[in-house]
Amino acid sequence: MKFILLIGPQAVGKMSVGQELAELTGFKLFHNHMSIDFVTALFSYGSPEGKRLIQRIRRAVFEEAAQSDLPGLIFTFVWAFDRPEDWEYVEEISSLFEKEGNEVYWVELEADLSIRLERNQTPNRLAHKPSKRNLEWSERDLQDTMKKYRLNSRPGEIQKELYLRIDTSELEARATAEQIIAAFGFARQETGKREEL
Question: How far lies 3's CA from each of 72, 88, 110, 149, 182, in Å?
């Protein structure tokens, strides 16, 4: 099994790229808002109860997937590189897959802020992420988070053999997914679907 950790700042295109990658490879997509928006229907965003429940859901999914016969799982995550707990978290979840003999692939996306602000409003993003539909809040959150944390790695900071970094500023989601497939030699199942970032 292949576990693809798809990281990058908000609205860089992680979910859209993950959708395309899933479409092309048959891997399953578990984007971070699948747990976030499920939990925030019950508990307020960022509450202690909500945070605990999100982590429990994700861990349960990872544990089941790591022992399953799925061909691959794609997980999207906003990694704050200046938070030690984020480093610990990604190592913890990747080790869940590695200890079962699975391969972990690290894919980092980056894009200019102006592009990300445009993508924050795309129909695909709003359709799949209810908590982002308040555009005034989500745009402010995007900019505040960028000021508070470092959301892309420094050159050489991620020391993983199966690591790829892509600037998506001028790329559609399908083209980005194609680069990932080519870089890692993933088998494909072409269906012809095309999504915008």
Answer: 6, 17, 20, 25, 16
